[in-house]
Design brief:
6 helices
């Protein structure tokens, strides 16, 4: 089976663009979720490039840890992954919060941080694919 890392990184870049648009539009929960998705897809691109065609789970921190020894993942990226992982469920599901819809729980500050962290992870992954 052919590797699809170029498709994964292309979609990661597109998801990051969507996260920026959502941030600009004030859709902060979607900005956070799209940013998190961008980081996940970028990491999956790297995994495919090193021959790991199947990745178990969706945890960014775990994915980054798995690359750590071989690709020298900087410590700040591990923190970025940890923060972004929070947005996988919380940004989408009303019952993930004690009360209120997800959009009531997110701010521009959180969304800006998520986009920044996703950008760092996507850039790291792009550099490993070049």
């Amino acid at each position: 089976m052919a590797s699809r890392e170029r498709d994964w990184i292309a979609q990661a870049e597109y998801d990051l663009l969507h996260a920026r648009h959502a941030l600009d539009d004030g859709d902060f929960e979607w900005a956070c979720f799209a940013a998190r998705q961008a980081a996940e897809k970028a990491l999956k691109a790297v995994y495919q490039s090193i021959g790991a065609l199947v990745i178990s789970g969706h945890g960014l921190r775990d994915m980054l840890s798995g690359l750590g020894h071989d690709l020298a993942v900087p410590r700040p990226l591990m923190e970025a992954g940890r923060v972004l992982d929070r947005h996988y469920v919380l940004a989408r599901y009303p019952d993930a919060h004690p009360s209120g819809a997800p959009h009531e729980h997110y701010s521009r500050r959180e969304a800006s941080q998520a986009v920044k962290y996703a950008d760092q992870i996507v850039r790291f992954c792009q550099s490993r694919l070049s």
